Amino acid sequence: MEQTMAVALHSVKLLRLSMNNLFGTLSDGVRTDHGEEHQIAANKFLLELQDLLGNLYLHMRELEQSVATLAPPPGPMPLYNSQHLTQESTLDRLALYEPLVQSYKWTDKVHEYSNLAVAVLSQNSLKRSYLSQSQKKRRVLTSSHNVPPQTVDTMIASIDNMIPNCCV
C-alpha cells in the first residue's frame, strides 16, 4: 500500500513538473534560439509545445494508472483537529469565521425556502383555460395590476421577517 502511494505521489510530482515546464514555455513564447526567420521559429516552437504536451500526456496516463491501483479508504476520513478552527486566536481569521458561518446558515435557509416554494408552486398548475381555446369568447385579461402601496409594503415586511439575516 505504501509503495503504491509513493508511486502515485511521484507521478503527481512528475505531472506538476511537466505542467510547469509547459506553462513556462508558453509564457516565454517564441525565443531567439528557435531561429531568426519567423516561420521557422514558429514551427520549432510548435514542435517544442507538441513534445511537452506529449510528455504531459504520458505523465497523466502514468498518474491515472497508479491511482487505479490504489485501494479506496476503508471508511470516512476523520477530520481530526478541524473542530478547533473556531478557536482561532488570530484576529483576522476570527473576524472572518463568524460572517462565513452566518452566510452558510443564510444560504441553507434560502435553499430550504426555495424548496418549499417549489413544492407550493408545483401544486398550483396554471393549465386551466390559458393554454387551450375555449368554446366561448372571453374578455381579454388585463396585463397590469394596480396594487396599493400599503399592500406592497406589507408583503416586503413579511418577506423581511421570514429571513432575519437578509435585508430586503
Describe this structure in words.
- The protein has 168 residues and is mostly helical.
- It has a domain of 67 residues.
- It has four helices and no strands.
- The longest helix has 33 residues.
Summarize this, please?
Helices cover 62% and strands 0% of the residues.
Shape verdict? elongated
Separation of the first and last Cα atoms: 56 Å
Secondary-structure element series: HHHH
**Alpha carbon gyration radius:** 31 Å
Count of individual beta strands: 0
Low-confidence residue ranges:
none
* Major pleated sheet: none
Count the helices. How many?
Answer: 4
Average residue pLDDT:
78
Please give the share of residues in helix.
Answer: 55-70%
Strand content: under 5%
GO biological process, one term: regulation of transcription by RNA polymerase II
Subcellular location: Nucleus
Keywords: Nucleus, Transcription, Transcription regulation
InterPro entries: Mediator_Med27
Features:
about 170 residues; mainly alpha; elongated; transcription
Task: Show the helix and strand layout.
Blueprint: H1 2-28, H2 38-68, H3 91-123, H4 149-162
Helix pairs in contact: 1-2
